[in-house]
Structures are given as C-alpha cells and as structure tokens.
Specification:
Alpha/beta knot, 60s Ribosomal Protein L30, Chain: A, 9 helices, 252 residues, transferase, alpha/beta, SpoU_subst-bd, RNA methyltransferase, TrmH family, 31% helix
Length: 252
C-alpha cells in the first residue's frame, strides 16, 4: 500500500483538482467522499481507479478492492481533499462514464439551467427512486460530478443514465418519436393533475430563480404548475420535481 504524508505531494495536488470542474474535465475523472458513496462506486465495474484512506480509518472487510490501488494519506493530506466539514476519511477517484444513448428510454427528466448543486443531486436521487429512465442536463446546469451534487444524489448517478446535451435538440428528437414534452411554468400552464400520464413522457424543470428559459418553453407540448395554497411564492424546484415525478409514475 502506497503512503503519502504531505499535503503538498504532487499526487495530492492532482486529486485536489478534481474538486474543480476544469480538473474533472481534463482528467475525465472525479472524486467521491464518504463510506456510502465509495461503497456504491466500488460496486460499479471498472469505475474506481484509486481508493484513498486517511491513516487510522478502517475499511469494511466486505469491500472488494481487487484491481483498485489503495493509498493511505496523513490527516493533513486528507483534509485537503475533504469537501465536508467532518470527513469520514475515505475517498475514491472514479472514472467518468457518461451515457451517450437513451434510445431505449421512455421517461425523461430534463434540467434547464439549474444552478444549486444540492437541488440537482436531490432531483437525480428522486428521479431514480421514481423510476425515471434517463436524466438530461441542459446547458447552464451545474456539473454532474460536482462534489455537492454527488453527495446529494447519494450514489443514484451510478444507477441512472444521465447525459449532457442541448435541450432544444433533445426535445425535437423526443417529439419526433411521439414523446409528449411537459414544461413547468404558470405561463400558459395548467394544473398538473389535469394531465393523464402516459407510458412515455418528458418533464422539464427550470432554473431556481428564473424558471425555464423562453426558448425551451416555446417547444413544450404543455406547461404544468403546482398550485400554492399558502403564502409562499413558489416551491423549491427539487420538491416540485418530486411531486410531479411521482404523480406521473403513479398515474401510469
């Protein structure tokens, strides 16, 4: 087992770059932190390249580490990699494996310019739980491999096809296949319960502050809204997505 003591070690500096989008894009790798996410990563074939553990932290005996390089680091070096206030002391460097084809999918969730990593991770986790076939991240949406997105998704990105793409092109392709496309907006919108869910559909949620872009809104077949009964102006986008996803799932 390799041992690294200094936080200034070149290898540690390279790992630290994975906390930035530029570093992830250049290396086509990313880093996950914590026992749960590392365990989920280890379950995926040919995904974990390096397993990093802070000295004194014990790894579960059940973990299969065949083919994985195990590296022990000092507490000082481990703190450099941590994206949490109190780290569990275990990290994994993973290979990016983005899905390029969603031809076999029937249900889709499209994210239009979402900026809050916690919201995106929660939406991905909820979409996977609700049985969505694929999630599509449009332009302006925070990177899938952002540490806060990964932490909020709790490993759901391993179990769900997720792609990045131009939503206008994707919507056009979906409509050509006969998939109804639903936006989320008050503008020309109908209450979501007025829709009878079909076997195949695409649902779009938009930016936390500005909602869906006008360009994308103009391409939808129908726009939906969730009524507000209290004094709040709107729902959190992750909560709204959860309500709509389960409505569409349970109504099929």
């Amino acid at each position: 087992m390799k041992v690294i003591q200094s936080s200034k070690n070149p290898v540690v500096k390279q790992w630290k770059k994975l906390l930035t989008k530029k570093g992830r894009d250049q290396s086509l790798t990313y880093i996950v932190e914590g026992f749960h996410l590392v365990e989920e990563a280890l379950k995926q074939h040919d995904t974990v390249l390096e397993l990093i553990v802070i000295e004194g932290v014990e790894l579960p005996n059940k973990w299969n580490l065949d083919g994985v390089e195990l590296i022990q680091v000092s507490e000082e070096a481990g703190k450099v990699l941590a994206d949490t206030e109190t780290t569990q002391g275990v990290f994994a460097v993973c290979r990016q494996k983005e899905t390029t084809s969603i031809d076999e999918s029937k249900t889709f969730l499209l994210l239009d310019g979402l900026q809050d990593p916690g919201n995106i991770g929660t939406i991905i986790r909820t979409a996977e739980a609700a049985g969505i076939d694929a999630v599509i991240l449009g332009k302006g949406t925070v990177d899938l491999y952002n540490p806060k997105v990964l932490r909020s998704a709790q490993g759901s990105h391993f179990h769900l096809p997720i792609i990045k793409g131009d939503l206008s092109d994707i919507i056009r392709d979906l409509k050509e296949k006969g998939v109804p496309v639903y936006g989320t907006a008050l503008e020309n919108g109908e209450e979501y319960t007025s829709v009878t869910p079909e076997e195949s559909y695409a649902l779009i949620v938009g930016n936390e502050g500005n909602g869906m872009s006008q360009e994308i809104l103009m391409q939808t077949d129908q726009n939906l809204y969730i009524p507000i009964y209290g004094k709040s102006e709107s729902l959190n986008v992750a909560i709204a997505a959860g309500i709509l996803l389960y409505y569409f799932k349970n109504g099929q």
